[in-house]
Design brief:
Blueprint: E1 2-3, H1 4-9, H2 14-23, E2 26-30, E3 33-36, H3 41-48, E4 51-53, H4 55-61, E5 75-77, H5 107-114, H6 120-134, H7 138-145, H8 151-157, H9 167-178, E6 193-195, E7 198-200, E8 206-207, E9 213-214, H10 219-222, H11 234-241
Antiparallel strand pairs: 1-3, 2-3, 4-5, 6-7, 8-9
Helix pairs in contact: 4-5, 6-9
């Protein structure tokens, strides 16, 4: 997807661009925007409608891990085409939205927008994915999102962790901490037993931050060790702690 200025930088003059459109090698999506045949159809639809792909959809297109349940297309409308009575689409409640100069919103602005469209734990998991895959620190991301950071986003940023290496790991961490457990993120293997893909405490009991001790037969403890074999049981995660969510 390219603006007229970008097409010019690719070597297209007005005459050669008209020829390419006539031959079907280039499509005119709307005034000033063009696409080649291999353009992503979702982005094409957004641009043709006077929008840019944003929020959760932009995060998905960028290759970040996004949990199930966000299949609808999230867009942001160009200010020039907003018009009376038309909704702007996905934006941040704080700060000024950037100009729609690209067909897809920048990932960091999309993250800020997605904080209003996703559940807290899902957003934290996506943000962890961004931090881990790009090598960005939490402090750097907090600085970059500062213009768009309201009360909700500030609270979510306090819970992200760039050390998490999967979305399910992030959600496990958030939920366990929410019920009072201390969670060690990516601990050294020398300190913990590696069992069935799960880092499990060597002790047969698990202590919460509130000082309570849970036997291995409690729901929370069974998420770290199976009561009979000591092996991680994925079914226990879904039935005892994570409801209907599938962590296979």
């Amino acid at each position: 997807m390219f603006s007229r200025a970008q097409m010019g930088r690719l070597g297209f003059t007005d005459a050669t661009l008209r020829t390419a459109i006539r031959q079907g090698r280039v499509r005119r999506l709307r005034q000033g925007w063009f696409a080649f045949d291999d353009a992503d159809p979702t982005v094409v639809s957004a641009v043709k409608a006077g929008r840019v792909l944003g929020c959760v959809s932009a995060l998905t297109l960028s290759g970040l891990w996004v949990p199930p349940g966000y299949s609808s297309v999230h867009v942001r409308r160009s200010k020039a085409l907003l018009g009376a009575g038309k909704r702007a689409g996905c934006t941040t409640p704080v700060g000024r939205a950037p100009a729609t100069l690209t067909p897809v919103d920048p990932v960091e602005y999309a993250l800020a927008c997605a904080a209003s469209c996703m559940t807290a734990e899902d957003w934290i998991a996506v943000c962890d994915s961004y931090l881990n895959s790009t090598g960005t620190s939490v402090d750097d991301l907090r600085f970059r999102l500062e213009p768009f950071t309201g009360y909700r986003l500030a609270g979510l940023l306090e819970k992200v962790d760039e050390r998490s290496q999967s979305g399910t790991e992030s959600i496990m961490r958030v939920r366990l901490r929410a019920i009072g457990f201390d969670v060690v993120v990516q601990p050294g293997i020398a300190e913990y037993e590696w069992t069935g893909g799960c880092r499990c405490a060597s002790s047969t009991t698990t202590s919460s931050s509130a000082g309570r001790t849970h036997s291995p037969t409690s729901a929370a403890s069974r998420t770290t060790t199976d009561t009979e074999s000591g092996a991680f049981d994925p079914a226990v995660w879904s039935t005892d702690l994570f409801g209907a969510m599938n962590y296979d």
